[in-house]
Amino acid sequence: MAEAADELSTPLGQQTVGRTRRFRLPFTAMQALAVLLGLVLVGFAGVVLFNDNPLGGEPIARITLRNAPPAATDEKHAPAGQPAEPAVKSAAKAPAAAGDAKTVTIIDGSSGKRQDVVIGAGDPAEKTMDGDAAPLAMAGIDPRLLEKSRYGMIPVVADGLKPFTVYAAEADRAKAARMPVIAIVVGGLGVGAAKTTDAIMKLPPAVTLAFTPYGADPGKLAERARGQRHEIMLQIPMEPFDYPDNDPGPQTLLTTLSSEQNLDRLYWHLSRLQGYAGIANFMGARFVATDPVMQPIVREAAKRGLSWFDDGSTPRSVAQSLSAGQSLPFARADFAIDAVPTSAEIDRALVKLETIAKERGTAVGVASALPVSIERLGAWLKTLDSKGIMLVPLTTAMLKSKSG
Prior knowledge:
By secondary structure, the chain is of the alpha/beta class.
């Protein structure tokens, strides 16, 4: 019927052409291109937002190092409830042969700066990313006095040498034995580069600096302090009476942990920087007053050739008696000179420290790196010579007290 109708309506002399049905897309080519570009942008945004790459796509070098042979396990140092960890092994190795060294060129993607890094098995003088020698070489760290723990390098006695004697700052000990001496320890360093740098640069080398194990790179700041001839100590976070409301930080030594667990935490702290002559409590009023948990820590410090500094924050501390039992070099702060952080109170505390030194022969003060403390200390230290008092590093005060 439809075909007949078409023929009747077709003009005379013309043939009917069959109609074909054409397929049409539901969108135009421009619309398809726009959708494609949108998907690309969404994918790029997802990579930027959710990809954990702090270098932001900067060129990096990946270096394959030879694996060391499997180490023996040491169950004694494994924390309770954890599998045994590799035993602590000596880090003193023979230098790598020249043929073992490899040079890798690293290119900074932002500046284009090229840096050659020499990688050699067992070579303590490897280069850092900024071209400086590695800390072991720059800071005068003796590789014989280090051994490998599961956290990194920690101090050890070797070849009759102890970190306490090797890393003690130079001093005229014969002169110190004849006159009153004062040792000043400025603690809490390593967290806050500005205040740490102020203490390093504005205080004389005879001032001992104590570093906490926290901060982005406490080892680099400690290295800078040693470069300015400061003697350094490592502060170990320990449990205070009001823990956990007052929390010293990660890996704090606790009275509720076993000796193996606390020793494991101690190794973590010891590995955070190098070149210290001894360790000190960071907070820890409850821990240092608890004999059973302190005994293994003091024994470990003695075993590793270190000294012990008690900040004097609690009269109940057992550190002095335990250190004497281990023949561990020891000193205790007489008081904190900036307990009241005002210029007038700090000046009064410093005068009191002078009196103790003249009466007893040795006095030890502890301070934080507050700007007012650094400023008052700097001014006062310039007057000591005229008062017949000698400023000495903490290790010198320890040796004088022991001989006395």
